[in-house]
Amino acid sequence: MKKFEFKNRELSWLEFNERVLQEAQDKTVPIIERIRFIGIFSNNLDDFFKVRYATVKRIAVSPQKNRKLYKGLTAKDLLSEINKKTIEVQNKSSKILNSIKSDLKKENIFFVDEKTIPSTQIDKIYSFFSEKILPQMEVIIFDKSNSFPVLKDSNSFLIVKIQIETETESIKYALIKIPEQLNRFFVIDESDKKYVIFIDDIIRYHLVDIFKIFKPKKIFAFNIKMTRDAELDFAYDISKSYLEKISQSLKKRQRGKPVRLVYDSSIHDDTLSFLIRKMGINKNTDSIIPGERYHNRRDFMKFPDFGKVNLTYSKRRALSIKLFNENESVFQTIKNNDVLQHTPYHKFIYTLRFLSEASIDPDVKSISITIYRLSKLSMVANTLINAAKNGKLVTVQIELQARFDEKANIKYAKLFEENGIKLVFGLPNLKVHAKICVVEKKNGRKLEKYGFISTGNFNESTAQIYTDITLFTSNKEILDDVSKIFDFIEINYKKTNYNQLFISPFKTKSVFKKLIKDEIKNAKKGREAWIKIKLNSITNYEMIEELYKASIEGVKIKMIVRGICCLIPENTEHSANIEAKSIVDRYLEHTRFFIFCSGNKNKTYISSADWMTRNLENRIEVTCPILDNDNKKEIFDIFDIYWSDNTKSRKLNSSRINEYSKNVKETLQAQNSVYNYYLKKIEK
Questions:
Q1: Do residues 178 and 154 lie in contact, with contact meaning Cβ atoms separated by under 8 Å?
Q2: pLDDT per residue over 171-189, tens digit each?
Q3: Which stretches within 106-210 are classed as H helix?
Q4: How many Å apart are CA 271 and CA 214, to the nearest integer?
């Protein structure tokens, strides 16, 4: 068998995060949005270390530590490569941040620290410190004999070194937790100027006041950040409920093993050595990275806009869907037509209208829905609770293992249970990632079904920034399949046959393989053969190999991959017919759809699944056909618009990784063009 080449997933992810950083560097992006992209870049990197770096580290310390993972690299070698790349991009991000700060000066917005606070603002700073910071600030004093406190990886800390003037001149250490409830940035207005100061620096300014009982001779403070392994550790105790196990595991996560220490590069050697020893950092496998003065740059995601609309993205109103008449029942509309909702271009309100109408319609008997992530104040949750109070049988399958949203989902699970909603949980080794809902409605003696299937979560907050497609349908075969999925989850994972949908972990991979093979057959017969794919990540080697085989046989493949891409496009040996691009822009590209030529039938699908092993083999995922010709054309058009982007599109070729797809003749920015595409639909 031909030996194919693949890109390492961790290194590919770092390349994706560089694309995010490119947005911070792009001076066509409004300046406040640029600094917020610095925050997104940093937040992404934190999550990467919690999950992916931690996974590689576990291999590096396991009995399989000498196993080759990538191009002859062991896990330890790969950790070294990751650290090298991380230092490189962090340094790059610091230069970009400094450039942004310079540009902010042109807008009369200035960063200041404890040494450059305007003298006229000292009193105001002190009032803020004493009234807001001090009551919420945690200060822990310890010396060489004390145990080091457990650091939460979501918090920012100052390690304080205090030199005390005594006969022997002793040293004390203290740890200050920067209050997470406060905005990291304090804004000072002075005539036409605005000053921004980190609350870290406000604390630094008052260090002598905080530690005056020690009569310090000298005092130093350095910012540090800890990242821990975020893997949940389940205790398989049959006496405990699944919810209890998740709750206990979350508490253990706070004490997960360290995987990364980022420290202020100006820290004293003795202080750094003290930290490494006390925190149990392993120099061989943990990431120890010198950084700038400030860490937890994810806080830049909440950087203030100073009320200057010209410094942020212009407000873009979400559009209506023409088929949904405001005066007509949602169910009546769906009965007559399959309808696509493409957020954030379209209003998310149609999902809410569907659920709201179902909650009060006397003929609706039941609502079944999967929940993966909800917004903080969820209207989706409210409508489901209302439905239960109105006597509907409401079944919610809620995924308690939605990474980093476990706590929120536990809260919602308890709320649902208190309000009479039937809860269904998945198993630890089989997450439910499908985005589905089905409603049963009585029509005379008949029971009709209405529902929706989506590529994204039912979350009104993320629907404003994540692109996702939702299909509203009354198609009996599709919705009978949806009902079977709920039966499968509820009734001891009973296997069944599906007519329209293909479901992970059972048939998603095999059906996609067959669709690719069908294109190969057509290519061999000299017929038109092509595949168009848009997804978030592709890491599964089996699927990549199928695409390589298709390319060798002449199938033309176009791919839009936002994140990880282990496939190497435009390789003369096995991927000459594969082109791949990535788009990073104002919205996070989250839609997953697939179009196969299929003898010009244009078989079209939307899916909750990326082509990653976890989505294909270890999760419940749903891939749904688009049957209506107008809807198929819409998705086809949308793909072509994305493919034509020459402003925010980057090449994923190994030789020109992250190079922009530029066209000097005509500028096309896909996300703007997609919005205009839907705007024209309304105006017709």
A1: no
A2: 888 999 999 889 999 999 8
A3: 122-128, 199-205, 207-210
A4: 19
Nearest-10 Cα torsion for 144, 150, 156, 157: -10
Query: What percentage of the chain reaches a pLDDT higher than 70?
Result: 92
| Domain's final residue, options 470, 498, 526 | 498
Orientation angle between helical segments 9-25 and 75-105, nearest 10 degrees: 10
- Could you give phi then psi for residue 505, rounded to 5 degrees? -90, 20
545 alpha carbon, distance to own chain's centre:
27
Residue at 271: amino acid letter: T
**Phi, then psi, of 514 in degrees rounded to 5:** -65, -40
- As a whole number of angstroms, the distance between CA 497 and CA 499 comes to 7
Per the domain annotation, does 250 fall within a domain?
Answer: no
Shared-domain flag, residues 524 and 560: yes
Contact 429, 618 (CB under 8 A): yes
**Which domain does 673 fall in, by range?**
503-683
> Residue 91: CB partners within 8 Å, gap ≥ 6?
none
CA-CA distance, 350 to 319, in Å (whole number)?
A: 11
Catalytic residue among 206, 295, 346, 433: 433
CB 367 within 8 A of CB 392: yes
User: Taking the mean position of all CA atoms in its chain, how far away is CA 422?
Assistant: 28
The single residue listed with the structure tokens 């950084």 is 291
Assign 278 to helix, strand or coil: helix
Kindly list the distances between the CA atom of residue 25 and the CA atoms of 100, 581, 664, in Å, as whole numbers in the listed order.
8, 19, 20
Q: CA 585 to CA 565: how far, in whole Å?
A: 18
Single-letter residue type at 3: K
Q: Show the tokens assigned to 271.
A: 């202080």
For residue 346 the two structure tokens come to 């379209």
Sign of the dihedral defined by the CA atoms of residues 118, 307, 314, 380, in that order: positive
Same domain, 510 and 445: no
- Pair 593, 469 in one domain: no
Q: What span, in angstroms and rounded, lies between the C-alpha atoms of 439 and 359?
A: 10
- Residue 367 backbone zone (phi > 0: left; psi -120 to 50: alpha; other: beta): beta
| 109-111, strands of its sheet edge to edge | 109-111, 193-198, 185-190
Pairing assessment for the beta strands 603-607 and 593-596 based on DSSP bridges: antiparallel
Residues 637 and 490 in one domain: no
Cβ proximity of 464 and 483 under 8 Å: no
pLDDT tens-digit readout, 89-131? 999 999 999 999 999 999 999 999 999 998 889 999 999 999 9
DSSP tag of 565: B
Q: What is the mean pLDDT of residues 423-438?
A: 87
Q: What are phi and psi of 94, to 5 degrees?
A: -65, -40
- Residue 458 sits in a domain of what CATH number? 3.30.870.10
Residue 609 token pair: 């699944």
342 is catalytic: no
Please list, residue by residue across 44-82, b when 16 or more beta carbons sit within 10 angstroms of its beta carbon and e when fewer do: bbbbbbbbbbbbbbbbbeeeeeeeebbeeebbbebbbbb
- Same domain? For 84 and 163 the reply is yes
- Residue whose tokens read 């829905």: 369
Please give the tally of structural domains in the chain: 3
In angstroms, the CA 387 to CA 366 distance is: 9
What is the tens place of the pLDDT at every residue in 634-646?
Answer: 999 999 999 999 9
- Residue 109 belongs to domain with CATH number: 3.30.1840.10
CB 270 within 8 A of CB 173: no
Rounded to whole angstroms, the Cα distance separating 424 from 395 reads 7
Give yes or no for a contact between 296 and 316, defined as CB atoms under 8 angstroms apart: no
Vertex 103: Cα angle to 97 and 105 (nearest 5): 110
Structure tokens at 451: 């529902």
Q: Is residue 236 part of a domain?
A: no
Specify whether the CB–CB gap between 211 and 171 falls below 8 A. Answer: no
